[in-house]
Amino acid sequence: MHVEAQRIRAMAFFGAHKDTGEKRIHESLDELRTDLADYIAQLSEMSVKERGVFAIALSGGSLIGLMGKLCEAPYNKTVDWAKWYIFWADERVVGKSHADSNYKLAKDGLLSKVPIVPSHVHSINDSVSAEQAANDYEFVIRQLVRTRVINVSEINDCPKFDLILLGMGPDGHVASLFPNHPVLDENNEWVTFLTDSPKPPPERITFTLPVINSASNVAVVVTGGSKSEAVHLAIDDVGPACPSLPARMVRPTKGKLVWFLEKAASSKLDSAQFSE
Ligand SMILES: O=C1O[C@H](COP(=O)(O)O)[C@@H](O)[C@H](O)[C@H]1O
């Protein structure tokens, strides 16, 4: 582990619960960024050692900026970028050069700054309908599961990504799984689509919950006080108050869940009162 990351881990509040995952609560964004880069680098190293590749699914939004330290020393030199295969847990159905594109965000903020193999970057087909884009993306993933670039779940034949990185909106959405939306009930498809996203743009594709919950590792990265209520509802024992909060439905069956929280985002957690 990088020395700075060791220091930060020692200072952060780390809590664990068997269902709701490990919570890494950081005093500052800078500390969170360092810990996140170190976590991703370590999973990459382990996965490359075990399987020869690292299949990682990204999200859009604030996440990419928070991954920025991967483009800096020591990670830009120590990570085995040639072994990375990149996917998106969700994507907006817009052109790849559109400001709303999650691919463009990742390309500008990360992929263009490190030596990723261009053919390992699996973005969506942006020239077809949302439904077709979801079908095409699932087909691509099926091919790569067949050749074991992406591992397979022993439980349900779903793809088992080495790491799925998620952000979370103030409404508790993750990827493009929004509260009370029918896509939450999609159990047959790996990738599905929506044309009525409550957050613009309306047309999106998204991994389904079975795929997210089949991953070896899932990290949810959340910053900002505006998301503190959703963090509380997603993690704490709130009874049946919010059965449809997508972030609460992220429960990897066999994999490991880690929440990366900056202090303001964690302020409404029940445990926050004990961590002062
Ligand atoms: O629309 C989206 O929003 C979520 C959350 O974004 P954030 O900026 O609040 O972190 C993001 O994770 C998702 O990929 C994106 O399509």
Automatic annotation (TrEMBL):
Annotated protein name in UniProt: Probable 6-phosphogluconolactonase
SUPFAM superfamilies in the cross-refs: NagB/RpiA/CoA transferase-like
Cleavable signal peptide: none
Pfam families: Glucosamine_iso
Protein family according to the UniProt entry: Belongs to the glucosamine/galactosamine-6-phosphate isomerase family. 6-phosphogluconolactonase subfamily.
UniProt KW keywords: Hydrolase
Principal EC category: hydrolase
Enzyme Commission identifier(s): 3.1.1.31
Statement: the UniProt record of this protein carries the keyword rRNA processing: no
InterPro entries the UniProt entry points to: 6-phosphogluconolactonase_DevB (IPR005900), 6PGL (IPR039104), Glc/Gal-6P_isomerase (IPR006148), NagB/RpiA_transferase-like (IPR037171)
Catalyzed reactions: 6-phospho-D-glucono-1,5-lactone + H2O = 6-phospho-D-gluconate + H(+)
Native organism: Rhododendron griersonianum
UniProt keyword ATP-binding present: no
Single GO BP term: carbohydrate metabolic process
NCBIfam families, A to Z: pgl
GO molecular function, one term: 6-phosphogluconolactonase activity
Glucosamine/galactosamine-6-phosphate isomerase domain sequence ranges: 29-259
GO cellular component: cytoplasm
Biological pathway: Carbohydrate degradation; pentose phosphate pathway; D-ribulose 5-phosphate from D-glucose 6-phosphate (oxidative stage): step 2/3
